């Protein structure tokens, strides 16, 4: 669970406020995209998990620190790294960087839920084993 997954994200005009700085809520969207692509890279699509396994992943908590602004047209790297795995949850350490400079750090906890009842559900074994293995290509 020490491997770091990363995706590039370009800042578009729609991502910014009137000062051409990324609007604070959009950092959370960028982090969501990285977690979704991380899951996809492991071989899982969220809609398939809901249909096939009857589970969804939902954000339970998020802590975020804004260190430096991202601006219109910046090319960012957004990371996702599992820092802790519980029976029915994953905690991610996430960063948003530009040219190696950390702009934003976050810790996001997602819960595995039953898709029908929204009750906590253990992470299915097939998903958990792939998470535990990770991939050396992401480091």
Notes on the protein architecture:
The protein is an alpha+beta fold. It has one domain: Hotdog Thioesterase (Thiol Ester Dehydrase, Chain A, Roll). The chain is built from 3 helices and 5 strands, in the order E-H-H-E-E-E-E-H. The chain has helices at 24-41, 46-53, 125-133, and strands at residues 5-10, 55-66, 75-85, 89-98, 101-114. Strands 1-3-4-5-2 form a 5-stranded antiparallel beta sheet, with helices on one face. A hairpin with a 3-residue loop joins strand 3 and strand 4. Residues 135-139 have low confidence and may be disordered. Keywords: Hydrolase.
The biggest beta sheet is recorded as:
5 strands, antiparallel
End-to-end Cα distance, whole Å, is 11 Å
The SSE order reads EHHEEEEH
Mean pLDDT: 93
Spatial ordering of strands, largest sheet:
1-3-4-5-2
* Name of the CATH first level: Alpha Beta
The level of helicity is: 25-40%
Q: Which segments are poorly predicted (pLDDT under 50) over 5 or more consecutive residues?
A: 135-139
Strand content: 35-45%
According to CATH, the homologous superfamily is: Hotdog Thioesterase
Shape: elongated
CATH architecture: Roll
Number of strands: 5
CATH topology-level name: Thiol Ester Dehydrase, Chain A
Structural class: alpha+beta
Domain Thioesterase: 21-104
InterPro entries: 4-hydroxybenzoyl-CoA_TE, HotDog_dom_sf, Thioestr_dom, Tol-Pal_acyl-CoA_thioesterase, YbgC/YbaW
Family: Belongs to the 4-hydroxybenzoyl-CoA thioesterase family.
Keywords: Hydrolase
């Amino acid at each position: 669970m020490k491997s770091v997954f990363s995706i590039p994200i370009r800042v578009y005009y729609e991502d910014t406020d009137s000062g051409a700085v990324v609007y604070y809520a959009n950092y959370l969207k960028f982090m969501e995209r990285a977690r979704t692509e991380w899951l996809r890279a492991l071989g899982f699509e969220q809609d398939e998990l809901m249909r096939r396994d009857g589970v969804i992943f939902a954000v339970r908590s998020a802590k975020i620190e804004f260190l430096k602004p991202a601006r219109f047209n910046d090319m960012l790297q957004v990371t996702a790294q599992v820092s802790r795995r519980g029976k029915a949850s994953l905690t991610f350490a996430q960063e948003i960087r530009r040219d190696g400079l950390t702009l934003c750090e976050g810790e996001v906890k997602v819960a595995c839920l039953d898709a029908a009842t929204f009750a906590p559900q253990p992470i299915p074994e097939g998903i958990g084993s792939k998470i535990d293995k990770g991939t050396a290509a992401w480091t």
